[in-house]
Amino acid sequence: MANKKNSIQEKVSENEEVNLLLKLEECSWKEYERRHSSEWQVNFGLWSGLGVMTGFSIKERYTFDWWWIASIFILIALLYIRFRFGVFKSNRNDQDRRFYYLKEIHIKGHIELPRGYDKVYEHTFKAFLFNWSHSSQIIITILLLLIAFLGLTGIVNIAPCK
């Protein structure tokens, strides 16, 4: 088996290997970009839904029991944070793969790496919470959930007076 592996490696030229690494790096970047656009679509869909629900409840003056709305919104918030953490880890994995391929090409002497490519990213929940992009989206979502909660429960009357 080892002889077969060595013979395959000998058949692949260095230029072919570099081209392969470049294609793998490009695939990792495209996967990151694809996920990045779909995560924003989820955000805008959720935020629009919360806005429509809040606006409808204010206009029609519908109110619901606070505990019912609170339990649903807590569930939504927890599922949303879990979704964001999964996206965060997948994004970091794509970035790690991309950096690995670029480092391999750099080691072969074909490219010069820009500053910052040697950085190692953490995949922890703490790193997730301190990531400006993900934490800002979570804060916006929680604020919109709070506004919707206040509107749907009637705790604070934010409807215009007639």
Brief summary of the model shown:
This protein has 162 residues and is an all-alpha fold. The chain is built from five helices and no strands. α2 packs antiparallel against α3.
Rounded to an integer in angstroms, the radius of gyration calculated over CA atoms is 24 Å
Element order: H for helix, E for strand? HHHHH
Distance between the termini: 83 Å
Beta-strand residue percentage: under 5%
**The biggest beta sheet, please?**
none
Q: Give the mean pLDDT.
A: 79
Structural class: mainly alpha
Contiguous helical run count:
5
Structure explained in plain terms:
- The protein is mainly α and 162 residues long.
- It has helices at 2-11, 14-60, 66-107, 125-129, 132-153.
- It has one domain (15-153).
- Helix content is 78%, strand content 0%.
- The radius of gyration is 24 Å and the shape is elongated.
- The model has no long low-confidence stretch (mean pLDDT 79).
